[in-house]
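Protocol step 4 of 6.
Sequence for G-protein coupled receptors family 1 profile domain-containing protein (Seriola dumerili) entered exactly as in the expression construct, tag removed. Do not edit the line below.
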Amino acid sequence: MMNVTNYYFFPAVYSLALVVGLPGNLIALFIFAFKITPRTAFSVYISNLALTDIVILCTLPFRIHYHINGNNWVFGDIACRITGILFFANIYMNICFMTCICVDRYMATVRPHSYLRLQSCWCSLAVSVVLWCVAGVAMVVFVLMGPLETDGDESGSRSCFENFAKHEWATRLGAYSVLCLIFGSLLPSMIILVCYPLAARRISMIKSKTAQRAVRVIYTILGITLLCFLPNHLVYLLHLLRRMEIIKSCSASDAIYHARRVTMALVILNTCLDPLLYFVTTSHCRWKGLKRTWLCGQIRRSRGVYTIVKRNWCSLRPSSFRACSDDTSFRLCAQEKDDKRVNQHVSFMTTQGNPTRL
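Step 5 output, structure tokens:
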């Protein structure tokens, strides 16, 4: 049963992710990076998120062959280092960019005045560059520290990125694993678990069907994130405790090993769900408009701002607002000139002058 799980289940999951996720993320990257103007914080983060998905998916053929071949790596140590580092590093980069999107929505919804004071596009570009630089340095250092291909069992098979000896764990893997757990798993999860409910609570104060749909979108995204990443974070914590010999039971160690593989499959399935996130969190990324996008060049968004008040829609002239450059489904925009008639509002970016529908 374990051989079936190891050798056939994971290749099937990875193949599904490759077939479904790669086209969706390539289309999303093309649209958000080259077709949508002006550039915004959301489009920058989404482009980077799609890029991390694409890198992960491009390493899957090697892992599919690895599992089908009985967990025997045949491509050599250099290929193991490159594909393994790209695979795991971009998983954490994926989580980081999802967290950036979460913080961006939180600031625009709960702290609109602070959000408008920021040059959000340039800020998002700077954050993205810093994240990629940190990840790049970590990947290069890790690759240069030594081989990642190890001897498997007595059959002569070779393992890649697993079954490390104790001295390997003590010299380099332990510190990296703890840092990845803290900054790549626990901290992003805490931010998402806090920011999303606060944003949803703020929007839910507005008794509007559109606002209620926005809340449902938030909780849908939260549910997908927790489904794909939270189990992996918890199992990874148990894995570290096992490697530190805090968990010593052999049966528990075997259960953690196989649970880690299953939760990793859930993480990979996230690459199939991310294109769905692109669709439900943007007003202009509709599949029916894809043909027009390819044929007609760049998409230019209307700068008109529509607000939802407690009772009905009202349109305010753009001159009374700063430019609210964002692509998310919902935004709170701060009004520069005090308007006593509007006490609480959520702004929705429009396409072709129509209010966004969630």
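Step 6, annotate. The chain has one domain: 1-148+173-294.
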